[in-house]
Amino acid sequence: MKSRLLLKIALAAAGMLTAAGTSATQVTFYLLDTQGTGLAYITNLTTNEKIQVPAGTGRGIPMELEPGDYSLTAPYRGTTALCSFGFTVGQPSDYGEKGMSMSLGGYAVYSRFRFENELGEKYYAKLGEDFTIENVRLLTPDGSEEVRCDTAAYRYNTTTYPDPCGFYVVAPRNYVVAADFVPTAKHPDYLPEQFYQPIGQSYSSKTVNFSKKTTFSLSFPTDARGEVTYKKGTTNYVPFIHVEPDSTAVVSDTTTYYYTVPESSQQYCYRVSRGDDLTHAGLFTPKDTKSVVITDAMLKTHDRHYCAHDVYSANRGTNYADIYLNINKRNLLRMKSGENFQIVNLRTWQLTNNSTSNYFVEPDYSWTVLNTDFQPDQSVVSVDDKGVLTAKKPGTAIVQVRYSAISLPAMNSSLWDEIWAENTGTFVVTVDADESSAPADNIRLAYKPDNELDAEHDILYYMKGLPGYELTFTPAEGTAVTVANPLVDSAANTVSYPKGFSSENVTVNPDGSVTALLTFGRNIIRTTDAAGHANYQVLSAKPAGLEIMRTRDDDYILPGDALTMQFSGLYHVAGKLASIYNSSCHIKYGDVTFNDGIIIGSGQYDFAGNPASQQFAVNVPDDRKENLVMENGCLNPQGYGSSPGAHRGIRYDIGLDPNFNAGVVSGQFGSLPRKVFEVTPLDKAGRLKMTLPLGNRIAPVSPSAIAKAFGDGTHWVSADESVAMPADNGLIAAKGAGKVIVTLVNDSRTRASEPLMTCEVTVPDDPNYVGVTGVKWTSEGDKIIGMNFSWGNWGNGGNELYSQIEPSNATYQTVIYTSSNPDAVAVGKKTFGRFETTGNRCPLFWNDATRAPGEAIVTVTTLDGGYSDSKLVRFMKYADSITTDTTSLTLEQGSTFLVEAKVSPADASYPVIWTSDNEEVATVDDGLITARGIGEATIKASVENRYGNATASVRVTVVEKTPVGIDRVEETGFVFWPNPCQGTLYVRPTAATTAEIYSLDGVRVFSAGVDEGLNALDLSSLSAGLYIIRMAEKTEKLIIK
Fold it and tell me: Quick check: 624 pLDDT over 90?
């Protein structure tokens, strides 16, 4: 099979190839399988000279080739099937020091589809009889050019199915293999299938199946535009493939497109849009959906500017409207006149059908070019309706990218906002500017002085109520700084820059630094030198709310207080993008990250709308006397995927495949407000106040802080224990509605009644209060967990416990989970020994550092009433493999032999289980095999692994016992091993006796007293040979090696 059109493949940079010269270019081929075959060769297409490719491996095969056009013929990996493709070699100067490189891969593309015959019997499709393969071709990565390509026939199994059923292809990585698999007239109910797949980093098989035909119709108002598309394969970010309708019908004001599509689970996307009305889109499978109707009323439900700006809506905090662009950290694009640049726009939150399958739909985008006075102007650069920029003349421009609202059922929502005005995609374009002359602005944050800020990931948050974020930096000497501050109209969802670039919000400090006020939205900082050279940095500033949550109602911050900084208005550093970002997000101050290590769960997808994810715990030290300052706050993404900024590598012509082998990444981004806590020493505090709901127990002041301030022997005293009374560990427990004063006293003082501290406790009346009467684990017995390292330490998938409060309708469901040994069994999160929650689920984690098995007592305790239940939790390590020191042996009837089993790893927790498949022939007890009767048996040693059991087998043959020179040999009343023996013999008599060993001529050569149970006898002095061992008048044959 050959492509119909043969073209050259130019692997040199576009526009850089020159005429063939005399100096050779080094070309290195990677993943070219030539080892031992001698089949690969290169053909000079000008001279027809064949050049043998030397043997090599995937590490690279270097060759020297003169510039020109060539074809490479090579075997598909592991076969002798030869494939070829064309390529062009440029001049050495066209490449770097390492020369030209080419990474290869390949596919075996075939069909093993099973059709039905007239009798309803399934059979495998035959090439030529049931289907044909047509239009096989190799395309450049963007699909725009066809490439010279020869394929080889593929056979699924040369013995059982000798006929070809597909083809092999070898080609450079990212080049696209396309072919049409067409059912013959024998199968009129089936549709052709197009194979279209970029070459990956390896060689693999790809199967093509056929689908029966079905029909689908899309109806919409005649003045609207409708289309059906689908995503080909699993590659993300490449354009969807448009489906042409078979026919069109117009009835009144409604247009209907009719399609013939495969009756399969393949997902298709419909889309209907009209002017300023709301675009409607959705995913469907032809197997389940036969028609979609979009009415005039549906389109008019909202316009394309719909914006609720509500991140806390029902779709779990994902309904925010931001954007990523493929520019750089500065959002500063430098172009040369005549150049083109494709803008890649990525909505975030990404409109994906769910968080795992990643079938996402983009909204409608629009692009605006402004001059530096922020007026529409396309004289420096222009942009077309596909987002392609063209540099037209020297100058500077600002480009804004927006997208419209869309109706799309995805991630628990069906209505998605227009881009929020403050997030309008904004970048600067300079044309023909000298980048090397751009003055340094040195914009940095204090906690990462060596890192440039990122225009999209470093969001600068300031306290609500303030005019903006004050950013201080020291630009190059002799430069002037101006800032274009955005003015966001949240009600209208618009943004403008009424003052353009201005120094009004820039302060020059005595030390040469400047402080720029950045307002809500995308700010553009311009640094200009005396010669007029300019540098630009786009940065976003946003207001954040902050509430300090504490156990008491007074305004004191005391030593030992546990505070919670509850933020609002924060957004994920790197919101989910298919194949790129999949991390959680955490708040970090200094060296402390809240919920550090949790990379799946709360804060992963719902960070923006989940208050629990926007918290930071502050524990005031027990001995703190001065103020506590929280500074250098930032956001810390943690999770699987790529580091923030990786989205800028996306290309629409290549896309990105799902990344199932992504590692864990982390980083620090943005800036959170500085917060000062004024700490009052305990002996300076006035009357404290605390509201204590019925069923709650709270410590007004940290017991350890009290001990540091006042020493031992202190305790709380209540003036009315019917309202609130002291409990263990410095807690005050609510008993009944009312108000009471509790005092802290020290009985060792001369005046025992002198209060050290006082607290006014209010217990509100709650007629609906239902008290807790108990708690228990939902499962009985110990919790035994095998550690599945391949899945990971996530605290789910069985690595959890569940508790149940009684009664189930108790008002307060808060429980505290504790571990007696968090180094072996952590609760709530990794390394934690205490976990407080209102949920009934307790995640369990092993020790990631040691991966050692271990156990702990895990206890659940109710906050209301202090009821508890405990359970032993044991993490067990699975075995990887098991082997025995022998795999077959022959024993005489009545003899024994000890088989030793070796388990890997050595610290595997599960015991070795020994079994015999024929206990009439041989039995086994902890590896000791006893020959019972003549015949054969298989002894198995099994140990649990994560797939079931790892096993090792010993085949035992038992033969008739033979005389050995003593008149009478009886069945023994003892057990001994090993036999044969070399050195130490172990004996296990049923009672204390004497062990005697005789040579075959009746001479006693060894005697020793032995106790009941296990004894070790040193027989190293005996020569090799056959002996008789006697104990308690019982005898047996013994072989010394």
Answer: yes
